[in-house]
Amino acid sequence: MRPTYMLPFARVFLLAGCLISVAGCGYRGIIDDFGTSGYARIEGKVTRADATPLANSGVSFSCGPNSPDAFGWSVPTDATGRYFIDIDAPGPVTVPASGALSCRVSAPHDAPPIVSVEKSVRFSTSADARPLTIVDLRLP
């Protein structure tokens, strides 16, 4: 039978091991050993039907084929309703020979989308030469 005083020490070591594992991943989460398959930039403006900006809200986007390879995240809009997305396509996603992936941009990001636009977005193999795609959204 194990002495009961050892149990708290085992918990401490287990907790310390978990913290070290999480800290080693950095703020971006799990390290991706596959690298980046392409680079792009999407920017635009979100406005309401009356032409006022959707300020300090956000948009979300998703690029690539359906699961499991689709990727995306959300970005905020500024005080004028503008948003900027620098995309680093993860390595497992294959950018086709055309250099473009289908991407869907939706607003707002923190609720069911009211407006969503799908567009072909060009990708480059160089982060310094990100092709720009403009996607403006207008809420009904």
Characterization of this structure:
The chain is built from one helix and eight strands; from the N terminus they run αββββββββ. With 140 residues, the chain is mostly beta strands. It has one helix at 6-24, and strands spanning 36-47, 58-63, 71-76, 82-90, 100-107, 115-122, 132-134, 137-138. Helix content is 14%, strand content 39%. Strand 5 (100-107) and strand 6 form a beta hairpin. The N and C termini lie far apart (69 Å). The protein has one domain: Immunoglobulin-like (Sandwich). The strands form two sheets. Strands 1, 4, 7 and 8 form a four-stranded mixed sheet that branches. A four-stranded antiparallel sheet has the order 3-2-5-6, with no helix packed on it. It is elongated, with a radius of gyration of 21 Å.
SSE order and pairing:
Layout: H1 6-24, E1 36-47, E2 58-63, E3 71-76, E4 82-90, E5 100-107, E6 115-122, E7 132-134, E8 137-138
Parallel strand pairs: 1-7, 1-8
Antiparallel strand pairs: 1-4, 2-3, 2-5, 5-6
List keywords for this structure.
8 strands; about 140 residues; disordered N terminus; 1 helix; mainly beta; elongated; 4-stranded antiparallel sheet; Immunoglobulin-like; 4-stranded mixed sheet
Largest sheet: 4 strands, mixed
- How many strand elements? 8
CATH top level is Mainly Beta
Radius of gyration: 21 Å
Query: Kindly, what is the distance between the CA atoms of the first and last residues, rounded to a whole number of angstroms?
Result: 69 Å
Compressed to H and E, one letter per element, the order equals HEEEEEEEE
Mean pLDDT: 78
Tally the helices: what do you get? 1
* Helical content band: 10-25%
Relevant CATH superfamily: Carboxypeptidase-like, regulatory domain
* Overall morphology: elongated
* Uncertain segments: 2-33
CATH fold-level name: Immunoglobulin-like
Estimate the strand proportion. Answer: 35-45%
- CATH architectural designation: Sandwich
Domains, number: 1
Question: Could you say which structural class the secondary elements and strand pairing correspond to?
Answer: mainly beta
